[in-house]
Design goal:
This protein is of the alpha+beta class and 302 residues long. It has 13 helices and ten strands. The chain folds into two domains: 184 residues, Jelly Rolls (Sandwich); 113 residues, Homeodomain-like (Arc Repressor Mutant, subunit A, Orthogonal Bundle), CATH 1.10.10. Strands 1-3-8-5-6 form a five-stranded mixed sheet, with helices on one face.
């Protein structure tokens, strides 16, 4: 039977990993996984109220997402936003675990400039199977940030402590952003196949689906078709084509709208409904935004 655990406090984090409760700060902690000796119970799902970054090296598969195992043998980084859940796999030998975990509460960064920019780090919405695979140099860059945060936690908290830790977290996240950019480049050939697949899915959808009944395809729908998370798919497409998944959907929508405008004499309102818009003004606005003219002007100019 599955069991669900939510980590609500820093002491919860320490207790979950079977470590001595040695809280140094109420909103942030670092876990050294080489010190974790306890085995994880079977069928355990773990969630937390923290932003979580986990770098681990396993000899065996040890974490699953959506029942798909993730191979951490070479060392990978996963990033979780508050509320995301992982299924922990008990097959890994605890004595063979290496790596670190950084847990920080949204309140730590909320009033800083980083708090306003957290949504920019879209890798927090990726699935675990889309983990960041790191080179030795990249691992060291991230670990240097972890060491600096750890050293700050060892000091007595003063007026500068939080600002220094938040600045270091931001540096770490910037490194993650850079390294994911590198990963998209090194996976360019396989990612190109995803781009082609997305285009084929959209072409088929607009040719065969009654959009007025089923609605426009969503980013979540596209991501499910290519077995990726919505965030990862959008970032992949942006790196490969300069356009997000939503941009691709809109491109095929506008192309279909152009075909209907020039191939029929249907009123614009009826066309808008056929294309899944409840209100024609939304269709008009999107069409003008993408083409520079209204639907009627496009029809009249051709």
């Amino acid at each position: 039977m599955s069991r669900f655990v939510q980590l609500q406090t820093i002491p919860d984090v320490y207790r979950f990993f079977g470590l001595e409760d040695a809280v140094q700060h109420p909103l942030i902690c670092i876990v050294d996984f080489s010190a974790v000796k306890e085995h994880v119970p079977e069928h355990l799902y773990v969630s937390s109220v923290y932003y979580t970054l986990i770098f681990k090296q396993y000899r065996h598969h040890a974490i699953r997402y959506g029942r798909r195992p993730v191979d951490f043998q070479d060392g990978s980084l996963i990033c979780m936003a508050p509320g995301q859940a992982l299924e922990m796999d008990p097959d890994a030998e605890a004595s063979e675990n290496k790596g670190w975990g950084l847990f920080f509460h949204p309140d730590l960064v909320r009033i800083s400039s980083l708090g306003n920019r957290m949504q920019e780090f879209s890798f927090f919405s990726y699935e675990v199977a889309e983990a960041l695979h790191l080179s030795e140099k990249e691992r060291q860059a991230l670990y240097d940030c972890i060491r600096k945060i750890g050293a700050e936690l060892e000091e007595n908290i003063d007026l500068h402590s939080q600002a220094i830790m938040v600045a270091t977290i931001e540096l770490l996240l910037q490194y993650c952003q850079r390294f994911y950019g590198r990963q998209f480049i090194t996976r360019k050939s396989s990612d190109h196949a995803v781009v082609t697949q997305v285009e084929q899915i959209l072409q088929h959808y607009f040719k065969t689906v009654a959009i007025s009944d089923k609605g426009l395809p969503t980013v979540k729908y596209l991501a499910g078709q290519v077995h990726l998370s919505p965030g990862y798919l959008s970032d992949l497409l942006r790196k490969q084509t300069g356009k997000t998944a939503q941009d691709h959907i809109h491109f095929y929508l506008i192309e279909e709208a152009k075909n209907i405008l020039l191939g029929t004499d249907k009123p614009v309102g009826e066309i808008a409904y056929t294309l899944g818009f409840e209100y024609p003004q939304y269709f008009n606005k999107l069409f003008k935004q993408k083409t520079g003219m209204t639907p009627l002007a496009f029809r009249g100019g051709n």
